[in-house]
Amino acid sequence: MAERERKLARPQGRVFAPRAQVMDADGVSRALRRIAHEVIERNHGLDQVVVVGLQTGGVPLATRLVRVLGEIEGTTVPLGTLDVAFYRDDIGLRPVLPEEVTDIPVDLTGATVVLVDDVVFTGRTVRAALDALADHGRARAIQLAVMVDRGHRELPIRPDYVGKNLPTRRDELVDVTLDGVTIGELVDERAAR
Amino acid sequence: MTAPARHLLSVSDLGREGIGEIMALADSFKEVSGRTIPKVPALRGKTVATLFFEASTRTRLSFEAAARRLSADVMSFAPSASSLEKGESLRDTVETIDAMGVDAMVVRHRSSGVPQRVTAWTSASVVNAGDGQHEHPTQALLDCYTIREALCDRHGGDPPSDFAGLRIGIVGDVAHSRVARSGVLAFSALGAEVVLVAPRTLLPPSLDSWPVKATADFDSVLPALDVVYLLRIQAERAGRVLLPGLDEYHARFGLTAERARHLQREALVMHPGPMIRGVEIAPEVADLPSSLVTRQVRNGVFVRSAVLFHLLGSGLGTERIRDGGGDA
Q: Global pTM?
């Protein structure tokens, strides 16, 4: 948790102040299990399905999803990770640096990609991810799974699988881990103490 | 908005932390190069101009490939096809190209300090692609990246964050070499111990301000070196007066097959190119697996992409924000 708070921290001494937990670890676990069943149902099994987690928040969820899919169907689904820094539309407007590795272990041509992220908000990260995935081959289909849909979309993007729809204010922040979902906001570091 | 690292004129502009950032970015571009479509849109709409007042096909091509991998547009200026022949001054040339709207100028010139002067005549970011006997920072960065990659391949795990404990011998015409100057700065910034191996005539007049040792006896230091970095003998710069002859040079300072036998088993052999077989290196040694020469060329593209993205795209120097999951 400390690690994520560090990443969420803003340079001007602003930190994430949690206000309320809206989902606990069991809730996240159940939502992932339901999403796993939905993925299998929608795709009539797991043939050609590849799970790709968005760096960094989507990766633990994607890893867990692959495990659950394996438990249900008894197969191992390929797991990839994607960092979209070079595809963002705000390069040069604000600092953008790759945080973590992109590792897509298979050619995506013909695959059904389940893209996993923790939160869908403006949709701009997902837009960047769609461009990035296209450079790894022509997928047959790309589906989007998120733990939280918090609204405020700026692009015509809609998730296929949602853990929880969570109405938020624009200035709020949503923190998602396997331990739960927390809503809060950024406050001055001094106020947080 | 004033970003501190708007230009790359010297390795010392980066420091240890900056070198580390370039290395990490280069890792990302190495991964991109393995994709079905080895190209990212990161610098779409930006224009990179290469201004090579001194001919160098490989470095120019490397920069242009690096820019294209980022989807930048590339303009190429070659003096033979230009108004320099008609008598236009350097300043007028730079201001003309600046007026066409470029975001970065990659400058090579036979005189030291030209890239520094160019920064006063353009609002673009300036990258030094080699100036006289001064510096060639991207060469030093790709050399660091190549060493780091080789160490990582050998030991596995995460790449090393510095070169502490590593002994690097730079052999040859140090006095006239911008590659040597940038290399010394970069290797020592990362904590390596640098030994210069050259006849006295090919060493700078004073080494007092350099964090290095120097010797004219290659054989005495050879067995202790982890990296042997061979410089090109630059006949066009060193002239004939400083060297008794290329054969004698090869006998005393070349990496001959006999010397290669005294190398550490895991020693790395590097050369910035173009490599002259039979002078700096024996033909059979150049093809040994310990030779990283082709890796240096390949890594040059990744590292130059990293430099261009660092200057034009990453917004370093503005406030530093990383994506938390919550605001993605």
A: 0.86
